[in-house]
Structure to design on (664 residues):
């Protein structure tokens, strides 16, 4: 966020004291036309642009004296400011021996008088990227380790020497750390490696390019960084790192039912692990390894697998990963879910078994037109959009990010009440509102709310989708979550609050499974809620992006009632995770059954009878009659309903407490 303070034309004689909370975020500071102002304070060195024309300034901090030729065209210093031509600049770097990691490949250089005039990028090394002027800059190292002369100013010939190395690190379990430091080392030198100042890392091997060591009996967690220090008698460098659990799976491309080769992406190896120490079980079969690296396993089973989700188990040197949702086997014959005669209600095309609707039509089988009178209003503060029609309103928001274990229990949760919103970006017909979660130091969460003034084909995770007019696309990205176990996964909780005019329930819903994945009955493909001639429709792609690769996404109903529904979208243990649900309001009615568009499914408008019910999977509305489809998935949902109601009350209660704390 850009912060500007304009003190121009105020006849000030000195710069007023500003709190650190302000100066640390200040981007532009204007003092123009204050002829009695003679001195600038030190904090102005961290401001990107300071205008001082029309002043009598003759005293400035060293940062101005160091880089006066670079900043002069932009800062407009007055004639009263005289800098000696041979001024010697004191450029100080806090630490010249730096450390990069796999997750943080950029080197962070801190110090004083580091320069970084934003409007004169030609004056310093192009590999530098200033973060805070004169205080913090980053350097993109060309190699995993090395030394380099860094030019902070070509005009003043300010050059400093730095060196760097790269740490790779693995955690076999929560009680052992294996560490590899990549760098330039002397094999005859004795190196000492300590972790968190108290644990000795026993050096196993030293080469000219790496040091390998391990620590036994140490309490590790991804949530808390550990400090690693490598030293010799006359030098040392250190770095706080986040341990990597392994084995862990981030994505598995689906296979066809006649295929037996499986590719698994993730993190799989310790420092010296060999393929003989790795075993993979798929279903009830051993999967024979062909390729084994730190980030990929390719293996082959002897027999073909049945369609649907398949159990996966990976053992690396005694550390185990298991899941039942990463690998999905696709049937040889595509199961068409395109309605009667597979013609998508005459309003679309059946593509690979699913409907691609014509413009202005929506629904799972393109059976309903999109309501042209819908209004979509993004919230100015939080990533919430209100989709409203003349009889209903739906408030869609991201309320929490949860880490869940293998039995579905929430082991860690981050509620999401505080956001920064950027100005809307319009690109042709597409309008994007971007929100960024704040007050979480290590986590990067962004939500994009997108609408289009005309039908627009977009691609996500390799799947083409059409963003139609009066439809909301909600993209959610979570980067850098710190997990408590290699077996846990992430779940994004989306809350939909609904309001209706003249509500009067008269109809009873019945359930079937047409809207769930035919080979994964626990996975919801869409939700529908009917009311008085309108249908709220939310669709969920069965894929997401995990570290840039598609993964099989599981969408579940957490809880629902007549006014609130919570939906959980599950993701694997990814560092960069993305999902992409869509929402719209459609016009009800099916002329083939004699029900005109814009009329209530349960009664005519003249009778003023209303009905509202979620169509989860597909909920078929039958007035006055309850038809119960007795299937296993229905039994599971019914048995868990009380548990999910507790989950809704728990989230709502925590959100209310946080909102009250913010108000005070």
């Amino acid at each position: 966020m850009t912060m500007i303070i304009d003190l121009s034309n105020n006849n000030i004689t000195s710069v007023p004291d500003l709190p650190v909370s302000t100066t640390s975020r200040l981007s532009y500071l204007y003092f123009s036309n204050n002829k009695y102002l003679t001195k600038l304070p030190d904090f102005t060195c961290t401001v990107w642009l300071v205008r001082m024309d029309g002043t009598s300034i003759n005293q400035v901090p060293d940062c101005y004296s160091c880089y006066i030729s670079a900043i002069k065209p932009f800062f407009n210093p007055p004639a009263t400011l005289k800098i000696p031509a041979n001024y010697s600049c004191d450029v100080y770097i806090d630490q010249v021996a730096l450390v990069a990691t796999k997750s943080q490949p950029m080197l962070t250089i801190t110090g004083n008088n580091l320069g970084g005039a934003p409007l004169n990028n030609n004056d310093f090394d192009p590999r530098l990227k200033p973060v805070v002027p004169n205080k913090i800059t980053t350097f993109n190292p060309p190699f995993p380790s090395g030394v380099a002369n860094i030019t902070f100013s070509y005009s003043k010939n300010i050059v400093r020497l730095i060196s760097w190395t790269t740490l790779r690190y693995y955690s076999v379990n929560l009680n052992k750390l294996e560490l590899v430091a990549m760098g330039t080392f002397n094999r005859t030198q004795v190196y000492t490696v300590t972790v968190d100042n108290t644990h000795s890392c026993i050096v196993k091997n030293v080469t000219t390019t790496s040091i390998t060591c391990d620590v036994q009996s140490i309490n590790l967690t991804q949530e808390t960084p550990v400090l690693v220090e490598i030293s010799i008698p006359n030098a040392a460098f250190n770095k706080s790192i986040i341990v990597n659990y392994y084995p862990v799976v981030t994505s598995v491309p689906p296979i066809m039912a006649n295929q037996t080769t499986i590719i698994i992406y993730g993190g799989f190896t310790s420092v010296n692990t060999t393929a003989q120490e790795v075993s993979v079980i798929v279903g009830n079969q051993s999967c024979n390894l062909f390729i084994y690296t730190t980030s990929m396993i390719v293996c082959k089973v002897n027999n073909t697998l049945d369609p649907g989700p398949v159990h996966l188990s990976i053992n690396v040197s005694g550390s185990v990963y298991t899941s039942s949702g990463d690998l999905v086997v696709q049937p040889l014959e595509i199961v068409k879910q395109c309605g009667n005669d597979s013609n998508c209600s005459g309003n679309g095309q059946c593509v690979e078994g699913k409907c691609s609707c014509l413009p202005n039509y929506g629904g799972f089988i393109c059976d309903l037109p999109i309501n042209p009178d819908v209004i979509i209003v993004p919230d100015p503060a939080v990533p919430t959009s209100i989709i409203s029609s003349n009889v209903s309103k739906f408030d869609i928001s991201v309320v929490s990010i949860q880490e869940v274990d293998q039995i579905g229990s929430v082991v860690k949760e981050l509620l999401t009440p505080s956001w920064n919103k950027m100005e809307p970006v319009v690109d042709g017909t597409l309008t994007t509102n971007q929100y960024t979660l704040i007050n979480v130091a290590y986590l990067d969460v962004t939500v994009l709310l997108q609408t289009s003034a005309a039908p627009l084909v977009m691609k996500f995770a390799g799947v083409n989708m059409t963003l139609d007019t009066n439809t909301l696309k909600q993209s959610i990205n979570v980067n850098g979550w710190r997990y408590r176990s290699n077996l846990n996964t992430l779940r994004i909780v989306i809350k939909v609050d609904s309001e209706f005019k003249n509500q009067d329930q008269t109809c009873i819903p019945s359930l079937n499974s047409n809207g769930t994945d035919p080979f994964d009955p626990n996975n919801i493909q869409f939700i529908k809620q009917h009311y008085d001639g309108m249908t709220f429709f939310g669709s969920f792609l069965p894929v997401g992006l995990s570290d840039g690769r598609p993964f099989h996404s599981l969408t579940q109903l957490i809880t629902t009632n007549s006014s609130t529904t919570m939906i959980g979208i599950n993701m694997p243990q990814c560092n960069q995770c993305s999902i992409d649900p869509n929402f719209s309001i459609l016009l009800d009615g099916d002329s083939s059954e004699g029900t005109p568009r814009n009329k209530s499914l349960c009664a005519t408008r003249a009778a003023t009878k209303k009905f509202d019910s979620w169509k989860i999977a597909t909920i078929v509305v039958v007035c006055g009659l309850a038809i119960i489809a007795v299937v296993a998935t229905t039994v599971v949902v019914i048995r868990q309903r009380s548990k999910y109601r507790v989950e809704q009350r728990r989230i709502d209660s925590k959100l209310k407490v946080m909102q009250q704390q913010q108000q005070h």
Observations:
- The radius of gyration is 30 Å.
- The mean pLDDT is 80.
- Residues 314 and 624 are 52 Å apart (CA to CA).
